[in-house]
Amino acid sequence: MAPELDRRTYDLLRLVDRHAPIGSIQLVELMQLHGYDIKDRTIRLTLSELDELGLTEKVPGKGRRLTESGRMELEQGDVNSRLEQIRARIAALTSRVSYDPIEDTGSTVASAAFLDAADIDETLRLLERLDSLPFGPIPVSLEESGEDEPGDYRLLTSSSITLDGVLLSHGVNADLSTAGVLEYEPVEATTAEADAGQSGVEHGGRIVRYVDVINGEGSSIDVISLLIEAGRSDVTSVIEGGETGLLIGDDREFPINRYEEARDLAVANRSSLGGVLDFRRPREQEQHPGGNSAWAFGSITYVGAGELLLTTLREYGLSDSWETLYGTIARNRLESVQAVSHAPPLDE
Fold first, then answer.
1. Which of 24, 129, 158, 347 has the fewest CB atoms within 10 Å distance of its CB?
2. What are the pLDDT tens digits along the chain (348 aa)?
3. How far is CA 58 from CA 50, 55, 73, 151, 196, in A?
């Protein structure tokens, strides 16, 4: 009979599989980086249980690795519990956000792209171009990759999920609903749009419409990664010619009685961390099948700097390895593109 494992244990198995052989101390650090509040003793006890189940085994002097049974269980568990794992990870990271967009301090959720040393100069030039467009500012951190990470360097910037954490910290419960491909124009708002609080310069440009929508049932970040891999974006047209392009972003709903507060927080978040925003008023009554609804929601569509950066690097062939939900990092680790571009090389 197959063991019944919780989401946290599947995530632990996944990390053992990726970094094996690996010890408990490293696993504690990686689990915390991925949003879990967990102690070394808990990791050691869990590993002992997994050993007894025949899912992991000790490598003398090096740590644990998966057995063949462990690998089969991980693959099967991924299929059966993938959605719940993604929801739990997003919820955990969202709850750890302490970022205050007004003060521009606190912790954010980061996306990470992994780069080869030979591509750094071209990446920085591309970042400067992105930063000069309405998308900007795009604060980033360029660091050497960890021993168990791909590439020579790790490029970090803020994920769209940071916004959900900002809203949550102010008591605004936002529910991720869909993700998809968005038609985008790098233009200022019309007078009517500005008066209505819709997209414009302060929002990073104009999101015209959804070209494709996928209901991820709370798993929009995973859907975003799939869309990036599928090459559905077209940021190149925006960068090279200032034309209409295709971005990949996600949408969240929130109670309409918090509309002004949510809008102000989102605008402040975008102003400091970059990306593109779009706001929508409540659903009209006639849009509901019954003609009446007890629910009133506003929605925010957001392409965070993280999603924007990953799609752009993918389009230009500069990165084929990334993590949309790398973990939480302090805002002060992210610097302006200009500061990073003019910093001394990391290997000096």
1. 347
2. 445 677 788 888 888 988 889 999 999 988 887 778 888 899 999 999 999 999 999 999 899 999 999 888 876 665 445 556 677 788 889 999 999 999 999 999 999 999 999 999 999 999 999 999 999 999 999 999 998 899 999 999 999 999 999 999 999 989 888 888 999 999 865 544 544 545 455 689 999 998 987 765 544 346 778 788 888 899 999 999 988 999 999 999 999 889 999 999 999 999 999 999 998 876 543 333 334 444 578 899 999 999 999 999 999 999 989 999 899 999 999 999 999 988 766 654
3. 11, 11, 18, 28, 62
H helix and E strand count, the chain: 12, 11
Structure tokens at 45: 């006890």
Whole-model pTM? 0.72
